[in-house]
Design a protein that fits this description.
The complex is a heterodimer of chains A (299) and B (333). Chain A is α+β, with helices and mostly antiparallel strands. Chain A is built from 8 helices and 11 strands. The chains are: A alpha+beta (299), B alpha+beta (333).
Chain lengths: 299, 333
C-alpha cells in the first residue's frame, strides 16, 4: 500500500513538473520570448504544485484537439467570418458523373413503367404509369427530371464555385440548372423551383492548433421543391419531398479526386420509404467537355 | 548531460500530454449490422444481371472476351464455385453486412472486420500500421487490407486478391492483380462505401462503385452467408473435365441488351467512353426506348410485399406470378 501511495505521489510530482515545463514552453511560443520565466527550468527545485493559472493554461493546451472536434462538429460557421473560410474540404471545380451504376436508368430514358428499385407508394406507381412527356412539353414542364433530386443522379457535369463567402453555387450543363447552397441564415421563402431552397452546413473533424489535418463533409437539406421526377420516365416526387445530401471528397494516392454524394429523398406522397443512394463524380482538370444542353422531356 | 536530461524530460512530457489530451481524431464506431438498400443496380443485386449486360463497366478487350465466354453453368464447376466471392462483392449482393472491431489488450482497435453476404472470407482491415506483404506473397480469398482514418472516413486498401468475378451472374472478371481503394463513411445511421478497383488486366480505367446501407440494430436481414460451400451442382459435369463456355462470337446473349432494350452494342459491351455524359451524343441518334419495360420493372414491389402492386398497373400485370396476381386482384376488388 505504501509503495502504491509513493508511486502516486511520484507520478503526481512528475506530472506537475511536466506541466510547469510545458507552461514555460507554450508561454514562450504563444506570448513571445519576453514572456519567458525569469528563472531557468530546474525541475528538482521547482515546486511540484502548479498555480491556478498554470492549471488553467495546461487544461487549455491539453484539450486543444478535443476543443476542435467538439466545437466543429456543431457545424456551420465555427469561429471565423465565413463558410468559405471554414471549409474543411474543397468542393469547387468541375465534376463529372461516372455512370457505372444504373446505367440503363441514368444514361438513357427507360420505358414507361420501369420503376425498379425506387420505393414508390401506390400513388407513386399510378403517377409513373401516367407519364406523358408530350403533356409535360405542352405545359412547359420539360425540366421535371432536372429538379435537384433527379438531377444529381443524371448524366451531368457540374461546376461548383463560391458565389459569395456563404453561398456555394452548383451549375450543371445537363439541363442548364443552377442551385445555391446557402450557409447560415435560411434564404427567404420564395416560389417553389426545380432546385428548391438548400441550406448547407459543414461537418468538421480534426484540425486544431497543432497543424493537424482537417477533415469534414458538407450536409445540405433541400426543400421548397417544385414537383418533379426522380427518373426521366416520370417516376415522381411531390412538392413535399425533402432532399438530404452528404458531400464527401476522397483522394487517391495518384491525385484523382472523387466526390461522393450520399443522399436521401423523403416524400410522404409518392414514396413508401426513403430513397437512399450514393452517387460519385470525378474531378476534371480539363473543363473542355462542359456542354450546356437544355431540358429535354424525352431523351 | 544537462541537455540530454532536458530532451528526455521534454519527450516524457509530450508523451504524457498526448495521453491526457486524447486522440485528435476520434474514429467512428462502425460496429453493427447494416441492412442493404437496393435502390441502385437492383437487377444485378436481386435476380442477377442479364447475360451480355456489361453496361457501366470500363472493360479491356481481354476482360470483355473473357466475360463473353461465360455461361451460366460455369459457376457450377467445382473449381469455380467460389469465384463469385471476391472481397468487395458485397456491394453487388442483396443482403446485409456486419462489421465489428478486434482490439488488443489495451483496447486499441487492431482491425475492423467485415462480414457480408457471399464473401469467401471475412475482410479484415488492419489498423495497426502493418505493411502490405511482398508482391509475391500468397493471395488469399479475402485479400490483404490495411486502413487508416481520414476524419470520419475509414480509408482501406486491398491487395493480394484472387481471380474472381466482380459483378453478379454475368462473368465480368477481376484479375489477381486488382487493387481496391475503399472509403467507408458512417454518419448517423447511414453507411456509405465507395470502392475504386484498379485492374491492369481486365479494366481500362478504375471501376468505381458507391453504395448505401442503413444501420439495423435488430439485424433483421438474418444470418449472413459468408462461406463458400462447394458441391456437385450439375451431376452430368462431374468428373468429365468439361468446362461450360461459349467460343468467341458464339455467345447467344451477346446482343441481349440490343434486342431487349435497344441499347447500342458498344454500350452493352462495357467500353469506358460509355460511362461519361458525352456518350449521350452517340446515344441520341441511335436509341429509341422500347415499347414496354420488359423484365423486372417493379423489383421493389415484388420484394417488399404485395400490397404495393395494384390491378391495372404494369407492375401487377407484368411481374407477379399468376397465382399471386389473381389473389391480389380478388383482394383489391
Amino acid at each position: 500500500m505504501g509503495r502504491i501511495f509513493s508511486s502516486v505521489i511520484a507520478w503526481d510530482r512528475y506530472a506537475a513538473r511536466c506541466a510547469n515545463f510545458v507552461l514555460d514552453v507554450t508561454r514562450i511560443a504563444v506570448l513571445g520570448a519576453r514572456s519567458a520565466p525569469k528563472r531557468h527550468w530546474r525541475p528538482a527545485k521547482r515546486s511540484a504544485v502548479m498555480s491556478m493559472g498554470g492549471v488553467a493554461w495546461l487544461a487549455f493546451v491539453a484539450s486543444l484537439p478535443a476543443i476542435d472536434v467538439a466545437a466543429q462538429t456543431r457545424g456551420a460557421r465555427g469561429g471565423t467570418a465565413s463558410a468559405r473560410a471554414d471549409a474543411p474540404i474543397d468542393l469547387t471545380g468541375q465534376w463529372v458523373a461516372i455512370i457505372s451504376e444504373d446505367w440503363r436508368w441514368r444514361m438513357i430514358t427507360p420505358p414507361k413503367g420501369d420503376i425498379v428499385s425506387i420505393p414508390l407508394s401506390l400513388q407513386g406507381q399510378q403517377s409513373a404509369e401516367a407519364w406523358d412527356p408530350a403533356r409535360d412539353e405542352a405545359a412547359g414542364e420539360q425540366c421535371k427530371a432536372y429538379g435537384a433530386p433527379g438531377l444529381m443522379r443524371g448524366p451531368i457535369r457540374m461546376r461548383i464555385s463560391w458565389q459569395d463567402d456563404n453561398t456555394l453555387k452548383l451549375e450543371t450543363d445537363y439541363g442548364i440548372q443552377t442551385r445555391l447552397l446557402r450557409f447560415g441564415a435560411a434564404a427567404p421563402p420564395g416560389p417553389r423551383s426545380w432546385q428548391g431552397a438548400t441550406s448547407a452546413q459543414w461537418i468538421v473533424r480534426g484540425g486544431g492548433g497543432r497543424g493537424a489535418p482537417r477533415y469534414g463533409s458538407l450536409k445540405t437539406i433541400t426543400s421548397n421543391l417544385r414537383p418533379g421526377y426522380l427518373r426521366k420516365n416520370g417516376v415522381p416526387y411531390s412538392e413535399r419531398a425533402l432532399f438530404t445530401e452528404h458531400w464527401d471528397v476522397h483522394s487517391l494516392p495518384n491525385g484523382d479526386k472523387y466526390l461522393v454524394n450520399t443522399n436521401v429523398v423523403e416524400d410522404p406522397v409518392y414514396l413508401q420509404a426513403p430513397f437512399q443512394t450514393a452517387i460519385h463524380y470525378k474531378l476534371e482538370r480539363d473543363s473542355s467537355k462542359w456542354d450546356p444542353t437544355p431540358c429535354d422531356a424525352r431523351f | 548531460m544537462r541537455r540530454e536530461i532536458l530532451i528526455g524530460r521534454l519527450i516524457g512530457c509530450i508523451s504524457l500530454l498526448t495521453v491526457v489530451s486524447g486522440p485528435a481524431f476520434a474514429q467512428v464506431e462502425l460496429g453493427g449490422t447494416y441492412a442493404i438498400r437496393m435502390h441502385e443496380d437492383y437487377i444485378e443485386r436481386g435476380p442477377g444481371s442479364f447475360l451480355g449486360d456489361f453496361t457501366g463497366m470500363p472493360l479491356s478487350d481481354e476482360g470483355r472476351a473473357k466475360a463473353l465466354r461465360y455461361s451460366s453453368s460455369l459457376p457450377s464447376t467445382i473449381e469455380r464455385q467460389c469465384l463469385a466471392q471476391s472481397p468487395w462483392v458485397g456491394l453487388y449482393r442483396p443482403l446485409a453486412l456486419r462489421i465489428w472491431s478486434e482490439v488488443d489488450e489495451s483496447g486499441r482497435v487492431v482491425a475492423w472486420v467485415m462480414a457480408g453476404d457471399y464473401l469467401r472470407d471475412h475482410v479484415r482491415i488492419w489498423m495497426d500500421g502493418r505493411p502490405h506483404p511482398s508482391a509475391n506473397a500468397w493471395h488469399s480469398p479475402s485479400g490483404f487490407t490495411t486502413g487508416h482514418w481520414e476524419g470520419d472516413t475509414l480509408v482501406a486498401r486491398t491487395t493480394h486478391v484472387k481471380t474472381a468475378w466482380i459483378r453478379r451472374g454475368v462473368g465480368i472478371p477481376g484479375s489477381d492483380q486488382s487493387t481496391f481503394t475503399v472509403f467507408i463513411t458512417r454518419r448517423e445511421n447511414l453507411l456509405t462505401i465507395m470502392t475504386v478497383q484498379e485492374d491492369p488486366i481486365y479494366l481500362t480505367e478504375p471501376h468505381v462503385v458507391s453504395r448505401v446501407w442503413e444501420f439495423d440494430p435488430r439485424a433483421s436481414q438474418g444470418p449472413l452467408r459468408d462461406t463458400c460451400n462447394v458441391g456437385v451442382e450439375i451431376p452430368s459435369l462431374e468428373d468429365t473435365g468439361e468446362v461450360p463456355h461459349y467460343l468467341p462470337g458464339q455467345n447467344p446473349e451477346e446482343d441481349f441488351m440490343v434486342r431487349i432494350y435497344n441499347i447500342p452494342k458498344e454500350a452493352a459491351m462495357g467500353y469506358a467512353q460509355t460511362l461519361y455524359p458525352e456518350y449521350r451524343k452517340t446515344l441520341r441518334s441511335v436509341y429509341k426506348p422500347p415499347e414496354s419495360c420488359g423484365r423486372y420493372c417493379c423489383g421493389w414491389i415484388e420484394r417488399q410485399g404485395l400490397p404495393g402492386a395494384a390491378p391495372g398497373l404494369t407492375c401487377n400485370d407484368g411481374n407477379l406470378p399468376p397465382a399471386l396476381r389473381k389473389t391480389l386482384t380478388a383482394t383489391e376488388r
